[in-house]
Amino acid sequence: MSAPVARRSHLVDLTPFRSSPAFFRLWLGTGIAGVGGQMTVVAVSLHIYDLTGSTGAVALVGVVGLLPMIIAGLYGGVLADRFDRRIVAIAAESVAWVSVLCLAGLAWFHIDVLWFYYVLTTLTAVATTIVSATRMAIVPRLVDKELLPAASALGGISMGIAITVGPALAGVLVATIGIQWTYTIDAVLFLAAFTGVLTLPAIVPEGGSSTRGVRALREGLGFLRRAPNIRLGFLIDIVAMTFGMARVLYPAVGALVIGGGAITVGILFAAGATGTLLSSLLSGRLGQVRRQGLAIRNSVMAYGGFMLAFGLVLLPLGTDRSGSITDSLSTANIPALALAALALAGAGAADNVSSVFRTTMLQSAVPDSMRGRTQGIYIVVVTGGPRLGDAFVGLVVATTLLWLPSVLGGLLIVSLVGVLVRLNPSFRDYDALDPKA
Fold first, then answer.
1. CB proximity list for 282: less than 8 A, separation 6 or greater
2. Sign, CA torsion 434/221/393/35
3. Where is the Major facilitator superfamily (MFS) profile domain positioned along the sequence (predicted)?
4. Distance (Å, rounded) from C-alpha 308 to C-alpha 164?
5. Which residue of 4, 182, 197, 391 is surrounded by the most CB atoms within 10 Å?
């Protein structure tokens, strides 16, 4: 890999758009569909909390879908290393779209059978996992290797917009026109994902494996065993997401702690995304960072610190058991809401910087014939970690102390990540000009 051209500007590098129109179309379609997807994430949380009044029931959404999502990520990666990645993505997106349509149908017909929602959200997560793994394996075929950090940062903008606009819009829509329309709007926005993928050329893996099924999966896991830097990057992300996720707390925080109901929930979801978006917009010099392992360590430890701060904001507030998920923002503790949002924005920014370097490391150090499988494992980590985090929060919040998961989790992240990197010098010394898995 050649040395990156020095840039003076901190603003995001748009060169990948200019050099690859196909990448731009994929990015745009993914971003638009992502807004709708994040709307549904919030809508499902609010819907289940409204039906049950239980944070544990909200957390169960992630727990139920964890094992199917792991299987989908692993075998989705196998498919992406064997077949045309464009076709794999289209098939998986079709399944996810049908699942969203079914959620809308349940809501419109007032079918409040809880397990239906668990099944459909699991099916959506499974399909989305396959799409994400395949899409990430496609990107290195669309842009030059030296532009991968910039492409990752642009992906952060797409994700940041989705998880900023989507949750905020969901909070407003649920509070005004209802759950049914929120699901329906997601189904319409999802169509953009097809546009982004359908316009791609055929992308057949280079030097793809002739093995199938379990043997192909074993090949991918065998490669990961020989890739200490990639492996540690996965482990660091698992630590961060397991102990640093607070999303299942938001409905209870909006109803019982800060107040404001659905509007507050939308703001809390959007706060982290705002940090993600801002850090991506100011990512222009990230491509010049060579010590990417150290950059991952520092950004993840900062993430843990911000999550600790979020928990400390909640600590002195107590709970109001008379609160309601439909309260208006006029009932909220505005100073506490502002501080909580600021902490979550910092966490989102730190996590995004870590993600840029982890993605770049994966896409530059892994051969194309293994990208689908390693990206599949990565997506399992990225999406499975938060579900472990949901379970962690669900267990800790049984104490009824809503501040405790974030305080305890933040302390664990800072300490564990520091120790892991100290014990792995090859990760600490990783050089982007000589990428080694």
1. 10, 11, 12
2. positive
3. 185-437
4. 21
5. 182
pTM, two decimals, is: 0.70
State how far the alpha carbon of 146 is from the alpha carbons of 16, 364, 434, in Å: 10, 9, 12
For tokens 């959200």, name the residue: 121
Distances (CA, A) of 136 to 6, 88, 151, 266: 26, 12, 11, 28
User: If DSSP codes are grouped into helix, strand and coil, which group holds residue 429?
Assistant: coil
Integer Cα distance of 204 and 138 in angstroms: 9
Please state the length of the chain.
437
Answer for the pair 83, 386: CB distance below 8 angstroms, yes or no: no
Q: Which of 149, 386, 141, 136 is nearest to 280 (CA)?
A: 149
- Measured distance CA(49)–CA(21) in Å, rounded: 42
Cα–Cα distance, 257 to 155 (Å, whole number): 34
User: The tokens 């102990």 sit on which residue?
Assistant: 243
- In sequence order, which ranges of 81-201 are alpha helices (DSSP H)? 85-108, 114-142, 148-176, 179-189, 191-198
> What are 33's two structure tokens?
């569909």
Q: Of 98-112, 196-210, 232-246, 264-278, where does mean pLDDT reach its minimum?
A: 196-210
Query: Angle at which helices 228-243 and 213-225 pack, to 10 degrees?
Result: 100
Neighbours of 424 (CB within 10 A): 19
Q: Please report where in the chains the tokens 């080694």 appear, as a residue.
A: 436
CB atoms within 10 A of CB 87: 15
Query: Rounded to whole angstroms, how far apart are CA atoms 224 and 302?
Result: 27
User: What DSSP letter does each residue of 227-291 carry, written as one string?
Assistant: -HHHHHHHHHHHHHHHHS--GGGHHHIIIIIS--HHHHHHHHHHHHHHHHHHHHHT-TTGGG---
Assign 414 a pLDDT band (cuts: 50, 70, 90). Answer: very high
Residue tagged 């503790």 (tokens):
333
- In the block, tokens 């439909």 appear at 326
State the CB neighbour count (10 A cutoff) for residue 260.
27
List the structure tokens of 350: 């730190």
Question: For residue 286, which phi and psi values (nearest 5 degrees)?
Answer: -65, -30
- The residue ranges of DSSP E strands in 283-326, in sequence order, are none
